[in-house]
Amino acid sequence: GAVVSQHPSWVICKSGTSVKIECRSLDFQATTMFWYRQFPKQSLMLMATSNEGSKATYEQGVEKDKFLINHASLTLSTLTVTSAHPEDSSFYICSAKRTVMSTDTQYFGPGTRLTVL
Amino acid sequence: QKEVEQDPGPLSVPEGAIVSLNCTYSNSAFQYFMWYRQYSRKGPELLMYTYSSGNKEDGRFTAQVDKSSKYISLFIRDSQPSDSATYLCASDTGRRALTFGSGTRLQVQP
């Protein structure tokens, strides 16, 4: 199966600082990646769609100036949480879309747990 | 109304039991249906992927899609304690990101 990595796996930061999370597709190229967040015992909520070489598309209610997304290459997308606050503490998960014989499948990274103090 | 509805559980079964997990969806444009398994503090892992109505089997897992009633199911045979996880159904129109159900927590008791 396809492999998607995330780094870091967990991070603790002080309120007001910025945190960058990387998402990499290790064995395939992904023109499209997605960023989700998940609160405890809840399902994944899509935050934004990251397209290689173009601006990300954000879901309604997600502040694009707070959650900066960069998809500079076919294997890497980054999510930067700017001026983080305790309410941003969550589990952030990326996925990468892989197309094989006209069939799209999303493969997920292991997630990054962010704790803002 | 959520586009994909799923009973959150928890569902507790004895080892060896047949598990039935279900979702309903409302968007007729959904064409692709997936089941993901998520262990605690981990990312979701793709289990099954189906496109059309009918059954798809992979080892102990069977995915079933009934587009006429907008109902999708996952059956797990001979359940094991290692199957204890949250199972997420997801649907896709093919043009956007996945829409997930809320997830069903499954616990298989040894």
Q: How would you sum up this structure in a few lines?
A:
Chain A has about 120 residues and is mainly β. In chain A, about 0% of the residues lie in helices and about 55% in strands.
Molecular structure report:
The complex is a heterodimer of chains A (117) and B (110). Chain A is mostly beta strands and 117 residues long. In chain A, 0% of the residues lie in helices and 56% in strands. Chain A has no helices and 11 strands. Chain A has strands at 4-7, 10-13, 19-25, 32-38, 45-51, 57-58, 67-73, 76-81, 90-100, 103-108, 112-116. In chain A, strands 2, 4, 5, 6, 9, 10 and 11 form a 7-stranded mixed sheet that branches. In chain A, strands 1-3-8-7 form a 4-stranded antiparallel sheet, with no helix packed on it. In chain A, a hairpin with a 5-residue loop joins strand 5 (45-51) and strand 6. Chain A is globular, with a radius of gyration of 14 Å. By secondary structure, chain B is an all-beta fold. Helix content of chain B is 0%, strand content 55%. Chain B is built from no helices and 11 strands. The interface between A and B is medium-sized, with 23 and 23 residues.
